[in-house]
Amino acid sequence: MAILPIAKIGNPVLRKIADPVDPDQIGSRAFQQFVDDMFETMYEHDGIGLAAPQVSRSEQLVVMACPGEEGFPETVLINPKILFYGPQQVEMWEGCLSVDGLRGKVTRPSMVRVQGLDRQGNLQDFEATGLYAVCIQHELDHLIGKLFLDRMTDLSTLTQLEEFEKYWKQVPASII
Ligand code: ZN
């Protein structure tokens, strides 16, 4: 396994539309190794999600996990699509391994139905809510060249990490 270098904001790879993964490649040793490396890189940096463009591979692959968070299993999504957005919106603080040291509030649908292949190449079709749903939308945005900063409607909530810890961390996410 290996820790992969993370592309930071300003790197053009983060602004590209990612290519679909060839399903025939999913079973290959190289691809499986890449998925393992993505998980290792995500855990190393205490992330809860990582998209392949963030490690400079413009492909439709994301990994996610949030140990201890109910309803948020370890997930691999390949060539994913969001089929449905729930009607309710949720406002949550987001950060990104490609945007060092910043947090900002983003409002997104609180439920999504998503379809995509798993790391065995099997089709998954499921609904996600709460933090899991927000993370899925954040990671899938990476596959179309979007960062959470693009989704912020109010830049006045943009906060450096130290100030986030000091002033904002205890304020819970709100359903709006
Ligand atoms: Zn991100």
Which structural traits does this protein have?
single chain, 176 residues, alpha+beta, Peptide Deformylase, 4-stranded antiparallel sheet, binds zinc ion
How does this model look, in words?
The protein has one domain (12-175): Peptide Deformylase. The protein contains four helices and nine strands. It has helices at residues 29-44, 130-142, 148-151, 161-168; strands at 49-51, 61-64, 75-85, 89-96, 99-109, 111-117, 123-129, 159-160, 174-175. Zinc ion (ZN) is lined by residues 96-98, 138, 142. Zinc ion binds at residues 96-98, 138, 142.
Write down the overall geometry.
Answer: globular
* Euclidean distance between termini CA atoms: 41 Å
Tell me the CATH superfamily.
Answer: Peptide deformylase
Q: Uncertain regions: pLDDT < 50 for 5+ in a row?
A: none
* Count of discrete alpha- or pi-helical segments spanning 4 or more residues: 4
Helix proportion range: 10-25%
Mean pLDDT: 95
Q: Given the helix and strand composition, which structural class is it?
A: alpha+beta
Q: Which small-molecule species are bound to the chains here?
A: zinc ion
The H-and-E topology, N to C, reads as HEEEEEEEHHEHE
CATH class: Alpha Beta
Strand sequence of the main sheet, in spatial order? 1-2-3-6-7
Radius of gyration: 16 Å
Tally of DSSP β-strands: 9
**Number of folding domains?**
1
The CATH topology is Peptide Deformylase
Strand content: 25-35%
Q: What's the architecture in CATH terms?
A: Alpha-Beta Complex
